[in-house]
Amino acid sequence: MIARLSGILTLRSPERLVIDVNGVGYLVHSPLSTFYELPAQGQSVTLNIYTHVSDQAMKLFGFLSDEEQTLFENLISVNKVGPKLALAILSGMDPEKLIGAIQANDVALLSRIPGVGKKTAERLALEMRDKLPKMDIVANAEASVSHESEALRDALSALTNLGYRKADAEIALKRLSEQGDKDLETLIKESLNLLS
């Protein structure tokens, strides 16, 4: 089993990464939250790896933080949640907000993640709640009930109207909102830089 990779990031895209380790290129899938934090193509990178083996293939999933990997492993243990959906969940909501939504049993918020319907959201809230105390992640339950500012809502609307996926736009805006309050024009401009 591969648990960690350190090498040169030779391909960097939201769909897949290739890490060259001593001349061998490893194809790695990662959530958008990890993708946005990666160095530029051609730079050195180290990722925690979860190796998923199925009848069809062996796939590697990479994470910059132990917390995200732990969340991923717990998500795929939920009934009817495979690695692809687990990545979509982690790409659609940052870990703190996700844990907050699970703790608060916020099915409506979980249902907003692309690919997660009401039944899956209910299953996540039910099955993951039992796993959270065993995880070393401290969540802020208030994160699930935080309200976006008007500028953030307007920026999200503008980015989705420009053709960006809502989940991608939300993650970019979340990163920018952590840097402090910004006006609408700055949010859109800096989000476009992150998304390009």
Automatic annotation (TrEMBL):
Coiled coil: none annotated. It is found in: Cytoplasm. InterPro entries: DNA_helicase_Holl-junc_RuvA_I (IPR013849), Hlx-hairpin-Hlx_DNA-bd_motif (IPR003583), NA-bd_OB-fold (IPR012340), RuvA (IPR000085), RuvA_2-like (IPR010994), RuvA_C (IPR011114), RuvA_C_sf (IPR036267). Residues 1-64 are annotated as: Domain I. Residues 149-196 are annotated as: Domain III. GO terms for biological process: DNA recombination; DNA repair. Its main location: cytoplasm. Pfam families: HHH_5, RuvA_C, RuvA_N. Residues 73-92, 108-127 form the Helix-hairpin-helix DNA-binding motif class domain. One of its GO terms (molecular function) is four-way junction DNA binding. One of its GO terms (cellular component) is Holliday junction helicase complex. Signal peptide: none annotated. It comes from the Bacteria. Keywords: Cytoplasm, DNA damage, DNA recombination, DNA repair, DNA-binding. Homotetramer. Forms an RuvA(8)-RuvB(12)-Holliday junction (HJ) complex. HJ DNA is sandwiched between 2 RuvA tetramers; dsDNA enters through RuvA and exits via RuvB. An RuvB hexamer assembles on each DNA strand where it exits the tetramer. Each RuvB hexamer is contacted by two RuvA subunits (via domain III) on 2 adjacent RuvB subunits; this complex drives branch migration. In the full resolvosome a probable DNA-RuvA(4)-RuvB(12)-RuvC(2) complex forms which resolves the HJ. Has three domains with a flexible linker between the domains II and III and assumes an 'L' shape. Domain III is highly mobile and contacts RuvB. Belongs to the RuvA family. The RuvA-RuvB-RuvC complex processes Holliday junction (HJ) DNA during genetic recombination and DNA repair, while the RuvA-RuvB complex plays an important role in the rescue of blocked DNA replication forks via replication fork reversal (RFR). RuvA specifically binds to HJ cruciform DNA, conferring on it an open structure. The RuvB hexamer acts as an ATP-dependent pump, pulling dsDNA into and through the RuvAB complex. HJ branch migration allows RuvC to scan DNA until it finds its consensus sequence, where it cleaves and resolves the cruciform DNA. This is Holliday junction branch migration complex subunit RuvA. It comes from Candidatus Nitrohelix vancouverensis.
